Structure formats: C-alpha cells, structure tokens
Amino acid sequence: MIDVDDGHEDKVRTFLTALEGIPDHDRVLSLLADDVRYHVSAWKEAVVGPTAVRAELERQASIFSDFHADIVNAVASDRLVITERVDSFKIAGKPITLHWLGVFEFDADDKISGIRDYYDMQELESQLS
Predict the structure, then answer these.
(1) pTM of the model
(2) What is the pLDDT of residues 34-65, one digit of tens each?
(3) Among 7, 10, 15, 64, whose CB has the most other CB atoms within 10 angstroms?
C-alpha cells in the first residue's frame, strides 16, 4: 500500500467546514474543477459545473441550517477521498442527524472533480415525521 499525502483529505475537510454555519460558497467553489459533477444523492443525475453546484448549494441553504459534519473515518488514495460521517443540520428548525458517506474524486490539477453523497432516506424521513 502506498502512503499518499497529497492534501486531498485536507481539501475535503475544508470543503465540509466551508458549508458549516453561514456557508462560504466561494470557498467551496474554489476547490472545484470547472467540470465538477455533484451527485446530491448518488443515484440521481449530477449537477455539472461550478455555477450549477452554487445554485444547488444555495437551494440547500434555503432548506437546511446549522450544518455540521463529524468525520468518523476518512480513506484517501491518490485521486479519491471517502468520508464516513455523521452529519447534523436543521430543517425548519427540527434537528436532523444522518449517517453519511461522501465520495470525492480529484482531477490532475488537484481540484474536486466529482462528489457523490450516500445516505439512508428512511433515516431522514423518520426524523421528519
């Protein structure tokens, strides 16, 4: 196994931290490739490009507040970071906690080129009911 210290895990942590509190979308976008593909839910169609990602993040910010990601585990290779997390946020003032897996891919310029999020919709629905 090759020990990789390319800073990608730090970039993912910066990405997640920039979404906490009052989201810093400019900071998030500075980490993204021009052709980034963001699957809000891994099984759904991706939003493509920084403009579309910004629009999606702004849409999310209108629904969610007080986002915080607790990284339980992170695994990194030369072009991939996978995070196992417990994410917390509020929807209409109601606290939500979800187990979350995020897959972040990096391009040759060390920019995030792909994001896929995995979570259990039943876990979310049970807390909203």
Answers:
(1) 0.92
(2) 999 999 988 889 999 999 999 999 999 999 99
(3) 15
Cα–Cα distance for residue pair 118/129, rounded to 1 Å: 21
Tell me which CATH code domain 8-128 carries: 3.10.450.50
Domain boundaries, the chain: 8-128
Helix (H, G, I), strand (E, B) or coil at 18: helix
Q: What is the pLDDT of residues 62-90, one digit of tens each?
A: 999 999 999 999 999 889 999 999 999 99
* Contact by Cβ (8 Å): 13, 71: yes
